[in-house]
Amino acid sequence: MKKNREIFLFGAGAVIDWNAPPTSEITKLIRESGFTLKGSNIKITEFIYQRLRKCGYSDSEVNFETIINVIEELIVYNSEFNTEKCTPSLLKSFLSENDLCNIYNYSIRGGKREHGYEIQVTNGQDFYYSRPAYFGENTNQYFLQFLLAELLSQICNKVAQYSWNTPSCSHIDKDCDNSKNFRNWLKKIHKTSILRLYTLNYDNLFKSLLESDDIQCFDGFFKNKDVYSRTDVLKISSDTESNIHYNLHGSAYWKVLSASNDQMPNPEIVQLKGIHLQMNDSVATMQIEKGKTLQVSNIITGYQKSQKAKLTPFRQFHSAFDKDCYTADRITIVGYSFNVEHVNETLKIALRYNTNLKIEIVDLSFKENSMDKIFASRFFTFNESDDMNPKTISDNIDSYFDDKITAYNMRFSDFLKYRQIIKK
Q1: Which CATH number fits domain 4-20+170-251+314-421: 3.20.20.70, 3.20.20.60, 3.30.420.240, 3.40.50.1220?
Q2: What is the pLDDT of residues 401-419, one digit of tens each?
Q3: Where are the domains of the chain?
Q4: Closest CA to 305 of 342, 280, 271, 273
Q5: What is the mean pLDDT of the chain?
C-alpha cells in the first residue's frame, strides 16, 4: 500500500507546552547577557535594545533576533573586504561610526594587531574564551564575534534546560500528558503515512518522543560512535521515503569545526551526542556574498537566515523541505509566526502547484493576530481558487477554500487532546 506523505513544520509555539522559553524570556536573557559598554555597567545588548526603541521601534519589533541581527550587521560593517590589504567593508567606506566606539569594549593583548593576536575585554582583563585570530579578522569584528558566540551559547543553554536528551540523561518527560498525546497522534498517522518532520527550533524534542515508540527518524547525519558525525548529504538529497526530523535553523546538538584538518578556514557543521555551546569553539566565518562576512554557527537566528541557509546541512534540509511540500498530502504547521520568507516561499509555491494539498495550522493567536487576513494577502493568492470561502467549524476551528486550509485557534496541547477524541 502506498503511504500518504505527511509533512510537519514546528515553530517556537509548538514547544511552549514542554516548558520551552517564550520569545519574551529569551529576549530578556539576551538583554542581560554579553559584554558591557566602555566605562559602563550597561550591556551592549541592552544599549542596542534601548537605541532601537528610541528610534521608534515598537516593543514587539525588538526581540532577541532583532538584537542579534544588529550585532551580525555590525560584524559585516567591521569586517574587511580584502583581509590581505585590510580594505574596509563597503558600508564602512561611506558611513561614520558615531558613538559605536562605546560598544568596542576591548583591548589587544600586547597592544598590536598581528597574526594570532588575542583580545581582552572590559578594562584589559583576559577573556577566558579568547582564541587567537589566525584568519585575518579585524579587531572590532573579532570582538563582536565573541559577543555573538556568547549570546548563542545562552540560547543553547536555554534549549538544554527543556530538551536535553542523551542515553544517560534526559530532561524530557516522555510520559506527561502532552508527550503521550503527541506520541499517540503521530503513531496513528504513522500507520498509513511517512512522517517528514521539520522544525525551526534548536532541539530534537519530537524526534526523541517518536523514538521512544520505536519510530526512527533520520536526522541528516551519519550514525557512528565517533565524537562527531558528518552530514549524510547524499541520503538527504535522495531519500524521500524515510521518516525524518530536520532542524531547518540548526540545532544545539551541532558544532562548527572552524578549520579543516590542514588548518585552512573551511567551516563545517557536525553533530555531537550532546548540546554544545559556541563559546567553547574558535570563531568560524565565511563570505556567502563578496565582502559580507557571516559568522557560521550551530544555530541560525537573527535576520541573516536566507544567507546562512546556503550552508551545509541547511541547504540540503531546505531543498528536502521544498520537495516534500510539493508532493505532500497534508502539511501541519504548528506555532509558526510566518515571518521567515524563504520558508513562506516554499509554502506559497506548494499551494499553487500541489493541487491536492491540505494544510492545517495550529496557533493559539491565529485570530488575535489576524492571521486570516495575513494569509488572504500573502498566501491565498497562490491558491488557484478565487473564493476564500471562510467557514466556521467550531468556536476555535475555521476552514478556507473549501476545507483546503484549516486553522485551529488553540494551543498545541489542546490540539493534541482534540485529536485524541475525534476519529481520523
Answers
A1: 3.40.50.1220
A2: 888 889 999 999 999 999 9
A3: 4-20+170-251+314-421
A4: 342
A5: 89
Cell of 332: 501541519
328-354 pLDDT per residue, tens: 999 999 999 888 888 999 999 998 899
d(CA 346, CA 319): 10
Residue 380: which pLDDT band, with cuts at 50, 70 and 90? low
pLDDT tens, residue by residue, 110-123: 888 998 898 888 76
pTM: 0.91
